[in-house]
Design a protein that fits this description.
The complex is a heterodimer of chains A (about 425) and B (about 500). Chain A is an alpha+beta fold. Helix content of chain A is about 35%, strand content about 25%. The longest helix of chain A has 15 residues. Chain B has 2 domains: about 90 residues, 2-Layer Sandwich (Alpha-Beta Plaits), CATH 3.30.70.20; about 325 residues, TIM Barrel, CATH 3.20.20. Chain B is about 30% helix and about 15% strand. In chain B, strands 11-21-20-18-17-14-13-12 form an 8-stranded parallel sheet. Chain B has a 3-stranded mixed sheet with strand order 6-22-23, covered by helices on one side. In chain B, strands 1-4 form a two-stranded antiparallel ribbon. In chain B, a hairpin with a 6-residue loop joins strand 8 and strand 9. Classes of the chains: A alpha+beta (about 425), B alpha/beta (about 500).
């Protein structure tokens, strides 16, 4: 580990990508990273996961994801559960929504100082919750809808997305006791310590509607439990739920460091999120191609492919060899425009898929799909390394946002009213 | 040997008279002329002082009558002035010369490889059985672009590759052969290794002595070296190789050139090196056209132009500032950086340089890999780790520290019969390896030699597969640079930090 001190803080984060970067706030920031509260060691474990995506943009209640995860109760051990929903903030679809977990008021104060310095905070409010037996020691949960002033981008020479990435890395790395649970547009992650169905109820996810939902129940083997350590792991619009262990974590992490990502959450799921961000957003690769790099076919198969395909896959392996995710995993990637489920290259973890009309389902167990869709038109076991891709059309998403926008005022009022009781 | 010498012999040749068949084979086998022949008694009579403990006579004695013992003369105990040092002083007092030696540094410096431990999977992630599942070792050496670009295929609906790649060396195992010149080693050694490289799908390296015409059939598996003496270098030589290596330095003798005595320059060597027969082949300490990094860049691009942009490797010895040097070399355009550690072997080196100059390979690989990552140029060049690779475990650990591939020299010679007696510089190698005396070189059958080397590398590759399987990964790229899978045992904190690894227990 490299030493971290206040000098590093100034050198890192929003400054690291560009010499003309943002001057970092000069006060309050702790020398110790606040998120590493579980352990210095990597968190290992098994898990259950699910994903559902309506490709027509129809918005489904989060209750669906909650019920599906509840059926896989035994795949977790109550030390972590979470959900990601897409299309859940149609009132403010153009703003970055940060979900924050705070240990204490000081962390909140420091983070808000940072956010106000680097963003325009259009709205902020507590994330609505309700008391659930079994959920305790919850952090302070707050969400911020953020805009970036154009001159900040010009000053830093960063795209809006890169700007947000640096801000997330800054807060997670340098603000003691603060953790960004999600940072995308029109999406959010809801996660914590507990069984997934408890977490879902706690966050009242049945009150949100989205066109894509992913869910996760965690079975960590060596952790006292930490809210930030639950899945999904997110960056911008990307969210990952993950079952398995990335045995190649060591090199994946070092590869990502070359591109300015700081993998310091001590969980291998983090690298999956960042690798997708790198390959899809920054390198502009189609998701099917990115999956062929992350869970690449074997040379014995590549060698037999037609020339164009062989050249492409050979180049992918040569150039993205350090991004290869090796070891057992099933992941579901949530994106603004859909969902991708992927198994490792020899399918060492379970993953089942199903389709019914426009809706695509994936889960660790078929029962979790049948729980919410008893009779899908088709269901299958995706082969090793073959991604299941569900895409929500741009038209469908816009339609959903328009429809939702009509009742946005009432919904926001209702949420604020509910939240005031919790805060 | 002068009668006045103070130096006692290092070994004692002990012949069991009951077992001796009196056949005289030991007399004929010994390249060092240890054995005289007592015509009256019809028995071999050893001159102990000439023995190098190369075991040629032991191996070939039909009666199993010979054993070589250390000449355990008692000296007054001193931790400061050891018998070796006393003998060295006598030797230099008698001759006034620089001490010469062969092979690699034999001093008891910390062997970092032996303080590194690999990980394995238990419960939370499964190990993979290499006997049942594919284990991929294929490795590409050369410059890689930052990213892949694809475009829709005009014909089909598929995607095609837009990115143009620089030429690469494709290795089917991450083990290749280090440069050992023809002249220092025999042509049969070159033949053996060239054949083995072809069969293994890897590469041999000519060293600085040129490429003998007999090796042309194997040129797709040969890296040709361009060293400061430019021996054997012309345009056809450069174009013959799969890649060209600029040798700046060698782990066994950083900062100094080479010296091949005229006695070893026979007709074949002289033709291959393009120098007169019987003259000493002296390669200068620096390249006389490289006095700075800009000069290196010019040579790199000159060689690229001369070869149609084949990969250019730059071989440097691991010295104190190796990370900064490597960064400069990569920025100068090298496609491969070959790091030669301070335990690397040599045909001849001043003992003081071999034993006291340079730094360990492990440290160099770790710092170079990290520096190139810090500068975000790691993809611009591949790292080859060499100089002290003794086993597949060393290969696995070097790759985990950040090397793309390893190169072996001494280990390959040991496969051919070398007993690491460190007398390479004498040119009398009884095993026919490090000599040009025809009665000795013919002892090495290239076909047999190739099979020995192939077996060795295949065995190591199988062992690497076992390591990958235990780590729960099935491709070598998932081990490369994966320092999280290494732990240090008995290393101090500073060394651990430099290596970028945690101590066992964390």
């Amino acid at each position: 580990m490299r030493p971290r001190d206040s000098h590093d803080f100034r050198a890192g984060g929003l400054r690291s990508a560009s010499p003309a970067a943002v001057p970092a706030p000069g006060r309050h920031f702790a020398t110790r990273p606040g998120y590493r509260e579980e352990s210095e060691q990597r968190i290992l474990g098994g898990c259950g996961l699910m994903g559902v995506c309506d490709q027509s943009g129809g918005r489904m209640s989060g209750e669906l994801a909650l019920r599906s995860m509840a059926s896989m109760h035994d795949r977790g051990n109550g030390l972590g559960g979470g959900f990601a929903g897409y299309g859940i903030y149609p009132e403010l679809p153009q703003l970055f929504c940060f979900h924050l977990l705070y240990n204490d008021d000081a962390a909140k104060e420091d983070t808000e100082f940072y956010l106000k310095k680097h963003f325009r905070v259009v709205m902020d409010e507590p994330i609505p919750t309700k008391p659930i037996r079994g959920i305790e020691n919850e952090p302070i949960l707050w969400r911020y809808f953020l805009d970036i002033a154009e001159d900040r981008l010009q000053e830093t020479q960063l795209s809006a997305e890169d700007y947000v990435v640096h801000a997330v890395m800054d807060i997670n790395t340098y603000v003691d006791g603060a953790f960004v649970a999600s940072s995308g547009k029109n999406m959010g992650a809801f996660k914590g310590v507990g069984f997934p169905e408890e977490i879902g109820e706690f966050y009242r996810i049945d009150e949100y509607r989205g066109w894509t939902w992913t869910g996760h129940g965690r079975f960590p083997t060596n952790t006292p439990g930490w809210w930030g350590g639950a899945h999904p792991f997110t960056l911008l619009d990307y969210s990952i739920v993950h079952n398995g262990e990335i045995s190649s974590y060591g090199i994946n992490e070092r590869y990502l460091e070359m591109f300015g990502y700081k993998c310091s959450l001590q969980t291998d799921t983090e690298v999956v999120t960042y690798l997708f961000d790198l390959m899809l957003r920054r390198h502009g690769l189609p998701v099917e191609i990115a999956c062929k790099a992350l869970a690449s076919p074997f040379w014995k198969d590549i060698d037999l492919m037609p020339e164009e395909q062989r050249k492409l896959l050979t180049a992918l392996r040569m150039i993205y060899g350090s991004a290869l995710l090796n070891g057992p995993f099933a992941v579901v990637l949530g994106m603004s425009d859909g969902m991708v489920a992927l198994n490792d290259r020899i399918k060492l973890r379970p993953l089942v898929a199903a389709r019914d009309g426009n809706i695509v389902y994936v889960a660790s167990e078929e029962s979790a799909i049948r729980e919410i869709c008893p009779h899908p038109e088709e269901s299958w076991m995706p082969p090793a390394g073959e991604p299941v891709v569900a895409r929500v059309s741009e038209k469908g998403r816009q339609k959903a946002i328009r429809q939702a926008g009509q009742s946005a005022g009432q919904r926001r009022a209702a949420r604020q009213a509910a939240a005031s009781g919790v805060a | 040997m002068a009668l006045t010498t103070f130096i006692p012999s290092e070994f004692r040749v002990v012949i069991d008279k009951d077992a001796c068949l009196q056949c005289g084979r030991c007399v004929r086998q010994c390249g060092w002329n240890v054995y005289g022949w007592d015509e009256d008694e019809r028995r071999p009579v050893p001159d102990h002082s000439k023995c190098s403990a190369c075991h040629r006579c032991v191996t070939y004695c039909p009666g199993g009558a010979i054993s070589i013992k250390k000449n355990e003369l008692a000296f007054k105990q001193s931790d400061s002035m050891s018998p070796d040092l006393i003998k060295a002083i006598w030797k230099q007092a008698e001759t006034g010369g620089v001490q010469l030696t062969g092979m690699g540094n034999d001093k008891p410096y910390l062997r970092i490889f032996d303080h590194l431990l690999l990980d394995a999977c238990q419960v939370t992630n499964p190990s993979i059985d290499p006997l049942r599942e594919p284990m991929e070792m294929r490795t590409f050496l050369g410059r890689k672009p930052d990213l892949v670009e694809v475009a829709a295929d005009s014909e089909g609906g598929g995607l095609r590759l837009v990115t143009e790649l620089d030429r690469q060396l494709q290795l089917e195992t991450p083990i290749m052969f280090g440069g050992m010149s023809y002249g220092s080693v025999s042509l049969n050694v070159h033949r053996s290794i060239a054949m083995a490289a072809e069969e293994l799908g890897t590469f041999m390296n000519t060293g600085e002595g040129g490429l003998h015409a007999d090796l042309e059939p194997y040129q797709d598996h040969i890296i040709v070296q361009c060293a400061s003496g430019r021996f054997g270098v012309d345009s056809s030589y450069l174009q013959a190789g799969a890649a060209v290596e600029i040798k700046i330095g060698q782990g066994a003798k950083p900062g100094i050139g080479g010296h091949l005595p005229g006695e070893k320059i026979d007709y074949e060597v002289s033709v291959t090196r393009m120098i007169p027969q019987g003259t000493d082949a002296l390669s200068p300490a620096p390249h006389h056209d490289i006095y700075s990094i800009e000069d290196l860049r010019q040579l790199i691009y000159a060689l690229k132009e001369a070869t149609g942009y084949k990969p250019i490797s730059v071989k440097i010895a691991c010295v104190h500032n190796v990370a900064a040097i490597a960064s400069g070399v990569v920025r100068a355009g090298a496609d491969i950086i070959y790091l030669d550690g301070f335990r690397g072997g040599t045909g001849a080196s001043p003992t003081i340089i071999r034993d006291h100059v340079g730094i360990p390979l492990e440290i160099a690989v770790a710092t170079v890999d990290q520096r190139l990552r810090d500068e975000a140029i790691r993809n611009r060049a591949s790292i080859v780790a060499a100089g002290g690779i003794r086993s597949s475990a060393d290969v696995a650990k070097a790759i985990a520290l950040g090397a793309d591939a390893c190169a072996i020299g001494t280990a390959a010679l040991v496969a051919l019969g070398c007993h690491v007696c460190q007398k390479c510089h004498t040119g009398s190698c009884s095993w026919g390896i490090c000599t040009q005396r025809p009665e000795l070189t013919r002892r090495l059958d290239p076909e047999w030699g190739a099979s020995q080397v192939v077996n060795l590398v295949n065995a190591w590759t199988h062992e690497l597969a076992e390591v990958l399987g235990a780590l729960g990964v099935n491709a070598i790229e998932s081990l490369r640079g994966s320092r999280e899978r290494l732990r240090g045992l008995g290393l101090d904190k500073m060394t651990l930090d430099i290596l970028g690894i945690k101590p066992a227990g964390l």
